[in-house]
Design brief:
The protein is α/β, with parallel strands linked by helices and 214 residues long. The relative contact order is 0.10. Strands 2-1-3-6-7-8 form a six-stranded parallel beta sheet, sandwiched between helices. Strands 4-5 form a two-stranded antiparallel sheet. Helix 7 packs across helix 9 and helix 8 crosses helix 9. It has two domains: 2-136, 3-Layer(aba) Sandwich (Rossmann fold), CATH 3.40.50; 146-203, Arc Repressor Mutant, subunit A (Orthogonal Bundle), CATH 1.10.10.10. 53% of the residues lie in helices and 16% in strands. The chain has ten helices and eight strands. The protein is elongated.
Length: 214
């Protein structure tokens, strides 16, 4: 029996997963909530084998919760379920420690497969279309061909640093920092920081938020 907790702000999704579990004897929903704040206590109390977490919860993003649970429970299966079927969300789920990624429109067999995978292989990652997503990411990286220093500057731009702050952070002159930023704008086809970041996020060059420990 795979004891499962569902953390999703959509009541119909929680109900649907409970009904799904009831139709398959190897899965049992032992708790549910739509709140990230309530989730930690629920997981502590119910001790599930697998947690299914929506990317968008009623009180914020579910991905920090994924990271917090992974850091606390190394062998907990974590399935990220979302309506946002994009490469960047898939890779964010992977980077935050998820065991599986599945979209809400997926067939029942795929949802069950994600839960079952997470129950037996919590520290690995599976997702339908993962190979295609990796191929697209490699193509984007080749297309933009950013140097390690340019990637570093791009990350600092994402973190909201000004050019002087970037220069101080990586120990280069302000003029050199300006050159790197201008080169990034040119490669990304952008005329502003906002445009550059939108392109970088959409193509998976950077994550939405700093990775743990960075």
């Amino acid at each position: 029996m795979i004891r499962t907790v569902v953390i999703d702000s959509d009541t119909l999704t929680r109900y649907g997963l409970s009904m799904l579990a009831g139709a398959h004897p190897d899965v049992e929903v032992v708790g549910e909530t739509g709140s990230a704040v309530e989730a930690a206590a629920l997981v502590e109390r119910s001790r599930p084998d697998v947690v299914v977490i929506d990317v968008e919860l009623s009180d914020g993003s579910g991905l920090p919760l994924v990271r917090a649970l992974r850091d606390r429970y190394a062998h907990l299966g974590i399935v990220v379920m979302t309506s946002l079927d994009t490469d960047d969300v898939l890779f964010r789920a992977l980077d935050h420690g998820a065991s599986a990624f599945v979209v809400k429109t997926a067939p029942v067999v795929e949802v069950l497969g994600a839960i079952r995978h997470a129950a037996v292989a919590a520290t690995s990652f599976t997702a339908t279309g993962l190979l295609d997503a990796l191929t697209r990411r490699r193509e984007q990286e080749t297309r933009f061909a950013l140097s390690p220093r340019e990637r570093q500057v791009l990350t600092l731009l994402r973190d909201g640093m000004s050019i002087p702050e970037i220069a101080g952070s990586i120990h280069i002159s302000k003029s050199t920092a300006k050159t790197y930023v201008a080169r990034l704008y040119d490669k990304l086809g952008a005329s502003s920081r906002a445009q550059a970041l939108v392109t970088a996020l959409r193509t998976g060059l950077i994550d939405y938020e700093p990775t743990p420990g960075s």
